[in-house]
Specification:
With about 270 residues, the protein is mainly alpha-helical. It has a domain of about 120 residues. It is built from ten helices and two strands. It has a two-stranded antiparallel sheet. The protein is flat, with a radius of gyration of 22 Å. The two termini are about 30 Å apart. It is a multi-pass membrane protein. It comes from Shinella sumterensis. Its main location: membrane. One of its GO terms (cellular component) is voltage-gated potassium channel complex.
Length: about 270
Protein backbone atom coordinates (compact mmCIF):
# COMPACT_ATOMS: atom_id res chain seq x y z
CA UNK A 1 0.00 0.00 0.00
CA UNK A 2 1.39 3.37 -0.97
CA UNK A 3 1.83 5.95 1.78
CA UNK A 4 0.74 8.71 -0.60
CA UNK A 5 -2.93 9.67 -0.14
CA UNK A 6 -5.29 8.50 -2.90
CA UNK A 7 -6.29 10.97 -5.54
CA UNK A 8 -3.09 13.00 -5.51
CA UNK A 9 -3.11 15.63 -8.22
CA UNK A 10 -0.52 14.70 -10.85
CA UNK A 11 0.01 18.39 -11.55
CA UNK A 12 1.57 18.90 -8.12
CA UNK A 13 5.25 19.73 -8.11
CA UNK A 14 7.81 17.04 -7.37
CA UNK A 15 8.61 18.67 -4.02
CA UNK A 16 4.96 18.75 -2.98
CA UNK A 17 4.43 15.12 -3.95
CA UNK A 18 7.54 14.12 -2.02
CA UNK A 19 6.33 16.14 0.98
CA UNK A 20 3.01 14.32 1.00
CA UNK A 21 4.64 10.93 0.66
CA UNK A 22 7.08 11.63 3.50
CA UNK A 23 4.25 12.85 5.73
CA UNK A 24 2.42 9.61 5.04
CA UNK A 25 5.51 7.59 6.00
CA UNK A 26 6.32 9.55 9.15
CA UNK A 27 2.78 10.02 10.48
CA UNK A 28 0.72 7.32 8.75
CA UNK A 29 -0.67 4.19 10.39
CA UNK A 30 -0.86 1.85 7.38
CA UNK A 31 1.46 -1.14 6.99
CA UNK A 32 4.05 0.63 4.85
CA UNK A 33 4.23 3.62 7.22
CA UNK A 34 4.59 1.39 10.28
CA UNK A 35 7.41 -0.55 8.60
CA UNK A 36 9.17 2.71 7.74
CA UNK A 37 8.80 4.03 11.31
CA UNK A 38 10.08 0.76 12.80
CA UNK A 39 13.01 0.82 10.39
CA UNK A 40 13.92 4.39 11.36
CA UNK A 41 13.57 3.53 15.05
CA UNK A 42 15.89 0.52 14.71
CA UNK A 43 18.32 2.65 12.73
CA UNK A 44 18.32 5.24 15.53
CA UNK A 45 19.06 2.50 18.06
CA UNK A 46 21.96 1.22 15.91
CA UNK A 47 23.34 4.76 15.55
CA UNK A 48 23.09 5.27 19.29
CA UNK A 49 24.97 2.01 19.93
CA UNK A 50 27.70 3.21 17.57
CA UNK A 51 27.94 6.55 19.39
CA UNK A 52 28.26 4.86 22.79
CA UNK A 53 30.91 2.47 21.48
CA UNK A 54 32.70 5.29 19.66
CA UNK A 55 35.54 5.76 22.18
CA UNK A 56 36.45 2.08 21.75
CA UNK A 57 36.15 1.96 17.95
CA UNK A 58 37.93 5.16 17.01
CA UNK A 59 41.15 3.39 16.00
CA UNK A 60 39.39 0.94 13.68
CA UNK A 61 39.85 1.38 9.93
CA UNK A 62 36.10 1.23 9.25
CA UNK A 63 35.25 3.90 11.83
CA UNK A 64 35.45 6.84 9.41
CA UNK A 65 33.33 5.03 6.81
CA UNK A 66 30.56 4.29 9.33
CA UNK A 67 30.90 7.85 10.62
CA UNK A 68 30.12 9.31 7.19
CA UNK A 69 27.31 6.80 6.53
CA UNK A 70 25.61 7.93 9.74
CA UNK A 71 26.17 11.55 8.67
CA UNK A 72 24.29 10.76 5.44
CA UNK A 73 21.39 9.21 7.39
CA UNK A 74 21.10 12.20 9.73
CA UNK A 75 21.33 14.62 6.80
CA UNK A 76 18.49 12.73 5.08
CA UNK A 77 16.36 12.88 8.23
CA UNK A 78 17.02 16.60 8.64
CA UNK A 79 15.93 17.26 5.05
CA UNK A 80 12.88 14.99 5.41
CA UNK A 81 11.80 16.72 8.63
CA UNK A 82 12.22 20.10 6.93
CA UNK A 83 9.99 18.99 4.06
CA UNK A 84 7.17 17.68 6.25
CA UNK A 85 7.25 20.62 8.67
CA UNK A 86 4.41 23.17 8.33
CA UNK A 87 7.00 25.91 7.75
CA UNK A 88 10.73 26.52 8.03
CA UNK A 89 10.41 28.40 11.34
CA UNK A 90 8.65 25.42 12.96
CA UNK A 91 11.44 23.11 11.77
CA UNK A 92 14.16 25.41 13.06
CA UNK A 93 12.45 25.78 16.47
CA UNK A 94 12.33 22.01 17.08
CA UNK A 95 14.95 21.17 19.78
CA UNK A 96 16.20 18.11 17.91
CA UNK A 97 16.86 20.12 14.73
CA UNK A 98 19.66 22.08 16.36
CA UNK A 99 20.98 18.96 18.08
CA UNK A 100 21.03 16.99 14.82
CA UNK A 101 22.83 19.84 13.02
CA UNK A 102 25.53 19.82 15.71
CA UNK A 103 25.74 15.99 15.59
CA UNK A 104 26.09 16.18 11.80
CA UNK A 105 28.93 18.63 12.25
CA UNK A 106 30.74 16.32 14.70
CA UNK A 107 30.41 13.47 12.20
CA UNK A 108 31.67 15.47 9.24
CA UNK A 109 34.44 17.24 11.18
CA UNK A 110 35.30 14.86 14.06
CA UNK A 111 38.74 16.34 14.79
CA UNK A 112 37.57 19.95 14.92
CA UNK A 113 34.28 19.40 16.80
CA UNK A 114 35.06 16.46 19.08
CA UNK A 115 34.24 18.64 22.12
CA UNK A 116 30.57 18.60 21.04
CA UNK A 117 30.40 14.86 20.40
CA UNK A 118 28.73 14.34 23.79
CA UNK A 119 25.51 15.79 22.32
CA UNK A 120 25.11 12.59 20.29
CA UNK A 121 23.63 10.91 23.34
CA UNK A 122 20.53 13.09 22.92
CA UNK A 123 19.47 10.54 20.29
CA UNK A 124 18.24 8.50 23.29
CA UNK A 125 15.76 11.26 24.06
CA UNK A 126 14.71 11.44 20.41
CA UNK A 127 14.00 7.69 20.39
CA UNK A 128 11.90 7.94 23.56
CA UNK A 129 9.77 10.68 21.96
CA UNK A 130 8.79 8.47 19.05
CA UNK A 131 5.01 8.08 18.74
CA UNK A 132 5.61 4.46 17.78
CA UNK A 133 7.10 3.79 21.22
CA UNK A 134 4.14 5.44 22.96
CA UNK A 135 1.58 3.55 20.90
CA UNK A 136 3.40 0.25 21.48
CA UNK A 137 3.36 0.79 25.24
CA UNK A 138 -0.37 1.54 25.21
CA UNK A 139 -1.26 -1.36 22.94
CA UNK A 140 0.69 -3.83 25.07
CA UNK A 141 -1.03 -2.65 28.25
CA UNK A 142 1.94 -0.71 29.64
CA UNK A 143 0.58 2.80 29.13
CA UNK A 144 0.75 3.35 32.89
CA UNK A 145 4.55 3.16 32.68
CA UNK A 146 5.00 6.09 30.27
CA UNK A 147 5.96 8.55 33.02
CA UNK A 148 8.37 6.07 34.61
CA UNK A 149 10.05 5.27 31.30
CA UNK A 150 10.35 8.97 30.42
CA UNK A 151 11.85 9.74 33.85
CA UNK A 152 14.38 6.90 33.35
CA UNK A 153 15.24 8.18 29.88
CA UNK A 154 15.71 11.76 31.12
CA UNK A 155 17.99 10.56 33.90
CA UNK A 156 20.06 8.34 31.57
CA UNK A 157 20.31 11.08 28.94
CA UNK A 158 21.62 13.56 31.50
CA UNK A 159 24.03 10.98 32.96
CA UNK A 160 25.53 10.17 29.56
CA UNK A 161 25.53 13.83 28.52
CA UNK A 162 27.66 14.64 31.55
CA UNK A 163 29.84 11.59 30.87
CA UNK A 164 30.34 12.65 27.26
CA UNK A 165 31.10 16.26 28.22
CA UNK A 166 33.59 15.20 30.91
CA UNK A 167 35.24 12.69 28.57
CA UNK A 168 35.47 15.18 25.68
CA UNK A 169 36.91 18.00 27.79
CA UNK A 170 38.99 16.22 30.43
CA UNK A 171 39.78 12.63 29.40
CA UNK A 172 39.84 12.74 25.59
CA UNK A 173 42.83 10.88 24.17
CA UNK A 174 43.28 8.56 27.14
CA UNK A 175 44.44 5.07 26.21
CA UNK A 176 41.94 2.21 26.01
CA UNK A 177 38.77 2.28 28.10
CA UNK A 178 40.26 4.22 30.99
CA UNK A 179 39.20 7.69 29.87
CA UNK A 180 35.54 6.88 29.23
CA UNK A 181 35.25 4.72 32.35
CA UNK A 182 36.79 7.49 34.49
CA UNK A 183 34.31 9.99 33.01
CA UNK A 184 31.38 7.66 33.69
CA UNK A 185 32.62 6.94 37.22
CA UNK A 186 32.93 10.65 38.00
CA UNK A 187 29.44 11.34 36.59
CA UNK A 188 27.75 8.60 38.63
CA UNK A 189 29.56 9.61 41.82
CA UNK A 190 28.61 13.26 41.30
CA UNK A 191 24.98 12.74 40.23
CA UNK A 192 24.36 10.54 43.27
CA UNK A 193 26.24 13.11 45.43
CA UNK A 194 28.46 10.29 46.73
CA UNK A 195 31.58 12.29 45.94
CA UNK A 196 34.40 9.85 46.73
CA UNK A 197 36.91 12.49 45.65
CA UNK A 198 39.37 10.08 44.03
CA UNK A 199 38.65 11.69 40.63
CA UNK A 200 38.38 15.48 40.68
CA UNK A 201 38.07 17.68 37.58
CA UNK A 202 40.72 20.40 37.49
CA UNK A 203 40.20 24.13 37.18
CA UNK A 204 37.17 26.39 37.24
CA UNK A 205 35.44 24.50 34.44
CA UNK A 206 35.76 21.28 36.42
CA UNK A 207 34.19 22.84 39.53
CA UNK A 208 31.32 24.36 37.56
CA UNK A 209 30.72 21.01 35.83
CA UNK A 210 30.48 19.27 39.21
CA UNK A 211 28.09 21.93 40.57
CA UNK A 212 25.71 21.74 37.60
CA UNK A 213 25.86 17.94 37.60
CA UNK A 214 24.90 17.72 41.27
CA UNK A 215 22.05 20.26 41.07
CA UNK A 216 20.43 18.92 37.89
CA UNK A 217 21.27 15.28 38.62
CA UNK A 218 19.64 15.16 42.04
CA UNK A 219 16.54 16.91 40.63
CA UNK A 220 16.18 14.24 37.93
CA UNK A 221 16.84 11.50 40.49
CA UNK A 222 14.03 12.81 42.71
CA UNK A 223 11.75 13.00 39.67
CA UNK A 224 12.56 9.36 38.90
CA UNK A 225 11.79 8.35 42.49
CA UNK A 226 8.44 10.16 42.31
CA UNK A 227 7.55 8.35 39.09
CA UNK A 228 8.24 5.02 40.81
CA UNK A 229 6.30 5.57 44.05
CA UNK A 230 3.49 8.00 43.17
CA UNK A 231 0.06 6.73 42.09
CA UNK A 232 -0.45 6.12 38.39
CA UNK A 233 -1.94 9.11 36.56
CA UNK A 234 -3.35 9.43 33.07
CA UNK A 235 -3.22 12.28 30.58
CA UNK A 236 -6.79 13.51 30.07
CA UNK A 237 -7.32 17.28 29.73
CA UNK A 238 -10.28 18.56 31.74
CA UNK A 239 -12.82 20.12 29.31
CA UNK A 240 -13.42 23.00 31.73
CA UNK A 241 -10.10 24.04 33.29
CA UNK A 242 -7.59 22.16 31.13
CA UNK A 243 -5.82 20.26 33.94
CA UNK A 244 -4.24 17.34 32.07
CA UNK A 245 -3.05 14.90 34.77
CA UNK A 246 -5.61 12.89 36.75
CA UNK A 247 -5.77 9.67 38.73
CA UNK A 248 -6.76 6.75 36.53
CA UNK A 249 -10.03 6.27 38.48
CA UNK A 250 -10.84 9.99 38.89
CA UNK A 251 -14.51 10.95 38.48
CA UNK A 252 -14.16 14.69 39.12
CA UNK A 253 -11.36 17.13 38.25
CA UNK A 254 -9.36 18.02 41.37
CA UNK A 255 -8.96 21.61 40.21
CA UNK A 256 -12.51 22.59 39.26
CA UNK A 257 -14.74 19.63 40.12
CA UNK A 258 -15.93 19.09 36.56
CA UNK A 259 -17.21 15.57 35.83
CA UNK A 260 -14.64 13.57 33.86
CA UNK A 261 -15.21 10.70 31.47
CA UNK A 262 -11.77 9.10 31.37
CA UNK A 263 -11.83 6.14 28.96
CA UNK A 264 -10.56 2.75 30.11
CA UNK A 265 -7.07 1.73 28.97
CA UNK A 266 -8.44 -0.87 26.63
CA UNK A 267 -11.22 1.25 25.11
Amino acid sequence: MSAEPPGVDESLSFIERMRRQLRGLYFGRDREAIRFQIGMLLLDVAILAFFIAGPYLRKGSAYVIVDYLIAAVIAFELCARALIAPNLRYWLMRPMTGVDIVILGTLLFPNQLHNFAFLRVLRIWAISQSKLVTLTLRRTGHGDKEDLIQACVNFLVFLFLVTGFVYSNFFYGAEGFAGFVDALYFSVATVTTTGFGDIVLPGTLGKLTAIVTMIVGISLFVRLAQAIVRPYKVTFPCPQCGLSRHDADAVHCKACGHVLNIPDEGS
